Amino acid sequence: MAGPVIRLHPDDNVVIARVDIAIGTPVSGYGFTCRSQVPAGYKIAARAIKQGEPVRKYNVVIGFAAGEIAAGTMVHSHNLEFREFDRDYAFGADYQPVEMVPEAARATFEGIVRSNGEVATRNYIGVLATVNCSATVVHKIADWFTPERLADYPNVDGVVAFSHGIGCGMEMSGEPMALLRRTIAGYARHPNLAATLIVGLGCERNQLAGLMDQEGLERSSRLHTFVMQENGGTRSTIEAGIEAVKALLPEADRVERTTLPASHLKVGLQCGGSDGFSSITANPALGAAMDLLVRHGGTAILSETPEIYGVEHTLTRRAASREVGEKLVDRIRWWKEQYSVGRDVQINGKVSPGNQVGGLANIYEKSIGSAMKGGTSPLMEVYRYAEPVKTRGLVFMDTPGFDPVSATGQIAGGANVIAFTTGRGSMFGAKPVPSLKIATNTAMYERLIEDMDLNCGGILDGVASIESAGREIFEAILKTASGERTRSERLGLGDHEFVPWQIGIMS
Fold this sequence. Notes:
- By secondary structure, this protein is of the alpha/beta class.
- The protein folds into 3 domains: 5-81, Archaeosine Trna-guanine Transglycosylase, Chain: A, domain 4 (Roll), CATH 2.30.130; 111-253, Rossmann fold; 266-485.
- Helix content is 29%, strand content 19%.
- Helix 2 (175-188) packs across helix 3 and helix 2 (175-188) packs across helix 10.
- It is globular and about 75 Å long.
């Protein structure tokens, strides 16, 4: 990759600028002179492209020429038309079973085994709100437990509040309420929480009793509940919550890490602030890491449904069965035909201003890189938002592309590590789960070194390969799962990133 441009597939009619290229620069090996001032990460026509002709990157259609495009011209949203095109889902046509690493040779990490056999990578006490009306109370309870007050409990990572903005003024039945409840319950049951408090107001639509009944939650030494209107109000509930956490701390502190196989890891895959290098460096490297994880028996959770749109056929083709592939197509159709009809959102074409500035013209182009995070393993199952993930291997969970909402669903489903690639420099934490930040390019990594854990820019710089970077990510995941703190954890990020998906109307 030492030259000024990168060709990703022999059949592509565009190349990618590896560095900023000035107008009038001859590009050797391709027979054209640059007709535009092209920033790094943007596309350049490698030959003349006729009006209406598909534009291909990685030999995948990312749009159609809006007019005649001369060789050497920058290709972006101004001359690239977004429109639908036929895709062959060919369910299961490319399915190949995973060649598993022998059990005796599988990677290990130092994890925490809970009494029910589930495995944790962190050890928090959580305080959950049923409704926005109890948000202040849960934060007041958690905030009381400062590092100084937790000093006697070195094995407890912290007391963290999970509040949100819904739970009332919403539909009382149906999927919107069911989704909220399974999200809250997914956190309440998450192995990274040694114990949980759930706090309700009392008159909200998301009644505590309904939540407990629907999700099969039971009060126990590990799960305490409070209703503010029955508990004497704000101050009394805060005081009762603080006393409850105090009583839970000694037991929560009595944990030990033990050596466990990597098959216990469930990694939620995220990308935010993507750029033109996401599909060239960090995302395929993360995919290589996930292929390793799957071969070692672990689980990779690919999500962000709008950000696989246009390349979903590459997943259905390697689905374990037609049923699994059709589940994915059904979720795509729900987005297109029900959820986002007439809305100015990603799945209907436009990506964020940051993605645009980073060199991504539309959702088709962004989806190429986004789907790469899942690697090349077969697609074993498709889940709705926040459903418990039980199947090992590569799975898909239906979520929006908005990272806090997407990661919340993955964690509620059981993810115990988040791996997050970024080209522009997203800042993100995901308590109670550690989040690894992976940079696509060296310039951003060096500029935001305090926030970034790993740099895949070496692939672009010619000093690393996708395989070597993937191995580095895999090893970093094992270390993180063993307790090594990530950059976002050191910065204290993750206290406000619990954001359940709001799919219903507010009334």
